Amino acid sequence: MSSFAPSPLAEPVVAADAPENSPRGAPLAAFDATALQLPGDADAPAFAERLQVLRAQFEDRSSYNFMVCDELARRGIQPNSHSVLKVGRWGSSNAVAADVRTWYARLSQRLQAQHAGIPDAARQSANRLLEQLWALSVELSAEPLGQKIRALDAELAAEQAAHTQAQAQIATLVAEHTTAQAHNTALQAQIDRLGLALASETERLNAAQVQYLQETEKLQRNLAETALAHNAALRGAAEELGHARQDFEAQMHAQRQAFNTQVGALQAHLTALQAQADKDRREAALQMDRARQDVREAHARADQAEQRAHAARALEHSLREQLAHAGIELAKAQMVLQTEKESQVQQKQRVDHLEQQLAQQAQAWLHVQTWGTNLPAPSSEDPAPPTPSLNTAP
């Protein structure tokens, strides 16, 4: 059965570095023994190594050795100069022995000062009542915070799922944009091929027209030379030459008409090719505009997803701040509980007064003992956290 008295071993303190010759037993800031994080086995090498890490936090050697004595006593090892020097490793053997003697003197004083003069019957009843109140207070204080944490975890999971879905949509849009770019590249290649074919056909027609003009000029020169050379011989055959010339001119006219017809057909084909190329360019431009619009919409959706992710990160930061604030509030509650423990010492006078009236109110005390025994015990399924004790260490 635990009691209300604080442990006489819980007095070592931690402070900033100070010279070793500081006054022994000077009051320092109190620390929580669980914060030392020392192994349970004092003979383990990790125990001495952890003490060396904590050594820099003590203002003098005596305070450090007091803490080592406390920890050895908690583990059932009698503190002496040999055991303290073995694990603490600070100071000479004489200095450590003096610190151990001082610790024993202070220990006896603390035990005498912290002795609670409460009858055993009343102490047991009060301990059971305090254990029940402690379990109830812990349960009531932890439940709202746990519900809030679960709700926040659910919201965070939903935001993460939405973010993942947005990333998948962005990847789909990027793939569609890549496909559109490939299609536009193929259309541009086809337009380039048609342009090359049109240029080749135009060059061939120009070459044919130049060749026709050259042949015509050559024929005219030949006719002129033949007419000049054989003017005398051809005078008699002028009529025949006139008919031949008319036939030649008719043939030339027919050839010109055929050439003009061929040139018109080629120009019509060239116009059709140009119209088809213009149509393909317009369609490609429309497809490029649609692709750009799709890309802009994808970027807008990506920005919205990024904003939602930023909001989720802000919410997570806010939740972390709230959890930190809850931890601070819990520390404050623990400090208030420590103050309540200290106030128990002040109630010693009231207990002394009750002892004076014990002989006159024996029947009343029997009623109190019976009431304490009938109180419901804490549930084994939800064990209460460790409670402060009058006679044992916390």
Observed structural traits:
394 residues, mainly alpha, 9 helices, 76% helix, rod-shaped, disordered C terminus
Low-pLDDT residue spans: 1-30, 387-394
Number of helices: 9
As a whole number of angstroms, the C-alpha radius of gyration is: 54 Å
Classify the secondary structure makeup into a structural class: mainly alpha
Q: Which band does the percent of strand residues land in? A: under 5%
Q: What gap, in angstroms, lies between the N and C termini?
A: 13 Å
Describe this structure in words.
With 394 residues, this protein is mainly α. 76% of the residues lie in helices and 0% in strands. Helix 5 (120-229) packs antiparallel against helix 7.
Could you give the topology of this structure?
Blueprint: H1 45-55, H2 61-74, H3 81-88, H4 93-113, H5 120-229, H6 231-234, H7 238-346, H8 348-356, H9 362-373
Helix pairs in contact: 2-3, 2-4, 3-4, 5-7, 5-9
